[in-house]
Amino acid sequence: MFSDIFDVAKDVAVTNQYEEIENIRCAFKNDEFVLYYQPKINMRTNQIVGLEALIRWDHPQKGILPPAAFLPVIEQNTLLIELGEWVIKAALNQLSSWSKSGIEMPISVNISPLQLQQTDFVDRLTLIFKSHPHFKAGQIEFEILETSALDDIKIVKSVVEKCHELGVVFSIDDFGTGYSSLTYLKKLPTEYLKIDRSFIRYMLTDHDDRSIVMGIIQLAKTFERTVIAEGVETIAHGEKLLTLGCKLAQGFGISKPMPAKEFPGWLGHWTHNNEWQILSDPE
């Protein structure tokens, strides 16, 4: 009897997942996905050094939904690859649009293990870049989630190296939260490490979190990587990070993710007056 109940529950779960995937597929076909952009700054110079593109679902009934509401559903489905390619193309289109307005700003996008480990990933990426002739080396950065399961690190390393030849830079995202931190750091030729927000949030009051942040910053120096702090919520966090040797930051304290149309106005305000100027060098 219990096995029958279990089988019924399993069937219901599978059916629900199928329906969720189909809903996401329909949303993709109906152009309901959009990119929001969150700035990254150099706290020492007060300059914007780039933007992270973050996908959102502009749901017709529920409004703007974060990636946690839909990406986990398709993490093992080929739809994730289609969506990932759309993100790259949308970011490239945005680069072109901003460039016409005099805004030159590199954009980083999150890349899933499923997409990165496709045998034709580099070939498809090459075709995408060829269809966007305005693309310049260094304008696109791929963020690899540190908790991602990369099946064959040697193959991924080769893919990263080939992407470098195309002008793409890489970062390890959410560094310190998974079991593969040191393996990825040692074997993947990335340019950046992003310290996970969970360590940044309480670093001012929690000695252990502060020690972890210090350790990651030292690791980055040892392996010649540039470190970026995620989840920076206050100027006090920024001040402490600077004393520890971390200049680059991203978080709600600087700006929440925003639609592309809002960024030029935000940038203009930032350039003329922002409270983070207090941390910059007087020179």
TrEMBL record:
PANTHER family in UniProt: CYCLIC DI-GMP PHOSPHODIESTERASE PDEF (PTHR33121), SIGNALING PROTEIN YKOW (PTHR33121:SF70)
Molecular-function GO term, any one: cyclic-guanylate-specific phosphodiesterase activity
One Pfam family this sequence matches: EAL
Species classification: Bacteria, Pseudomonadati, Pseudomonadota, Gammaproteobacteria, Alteromonadales
SUPFAM superfamilies the UniProt entry points to: EAL domain-like
Protein name listed in UniProt: Signal transduction protein
Residue ranges constituting the EAL domain according to the UniProt record: 17-271
